Amino acid sequence: MTCALHFCGIGLFLYEGVPFYLSPTYLWDLVEKHKITHLFLPANVADDLEKFGYLPTEKHDFSNLKSAMAGGSIVKPQAFDFFYNIVKKDIVFCSTYGSTEVIGICISMVKSVPIYRGESSVAALAVDMQCVNEEGKPIEGEYGELIIAKPAPFLLLGLWGDSDGSRARKSYYEKFPGKFAMGDFAVINPVTKGYVICGRSDDTLKQRGTRFGSSEIYNVVDLFPEVKDCICVSQYNKDLDERAVLFLKMTEGFFFNDDIVKRIQDAITEELTSAHIPDVILETQDIPYSINGKKMEIIVKNIINKRPYNTDNVMNPECLKNFCDIPLLQEDF
């Protein structure tokens, strides 16, 4: 694909590293200097640019910038506001969805299709993307698992060391026979037909019968400048009853206390429902991330439920000790 772009006269500009390490406006300086027309950012970078105030100035010339996309993890609705209201009013911004297994994007932007805040517009060409219930039936307007329902040339042929293909079949085809399970929950808007990505299907929480994705909690908590980061996971008791546990990493200069907990609870009630309020809200010093920049809910979930876990893909494994043997989480509920 890269060769094809070059033959068409399109140049690629790749940047590796923290885009605001040298200065708060370094990314925007690069966009202006190299006259970038189409910008792709990891979702967490887009979040950080807004949260820490690393904004373009009035002197930046973005006349060449036509569109921007974010992906790699869940793109929050606030990112749409940031790009349209702060970066450039006439830009085309959208969230994308893809995976390592398909080596690309499955849901993206088509400029002839309307873009709605917080949604990914349409499935990519020749991708039969569906959102299905537990029986494998296509659904709209409610949580379901994303699948690719028909064979496609880009689907993986196998996994390293999986000589008979059994591991690949179990991982991707066992739950919905003959269909490739992406491993993520989403909701298809029945009106716009856009996709709202809700996170990993094995990370979804179900507290007292209310099922929700951790991203819904993050969308609310991330609006609090006092909170630098957060992670929300499930904990189970001996009867396998489930409750949500929310960990907050405070911004330097702010302190974890009953007031911030109460205001977060009120905000979750207002934006979602009172049933979405995590039963336990605690402070932590840091949040584990993968080398791809994704929050590692599964590993935190395994730690607080005293299950085995693997630290090979954790970028900051030293923080995991913060989630071990927390007294409040040792009590029965």
From TrEMBL:
Transmembrane segments: none annotated. It comes from the Eukaryota. Residues 6-152 form the AMP-dependent synthetase/ligase domain. GO terms for molecular function: acetoacetate-CoA ligase activity. This is AMP-dependent synthetase/ligase domain-containing protein.
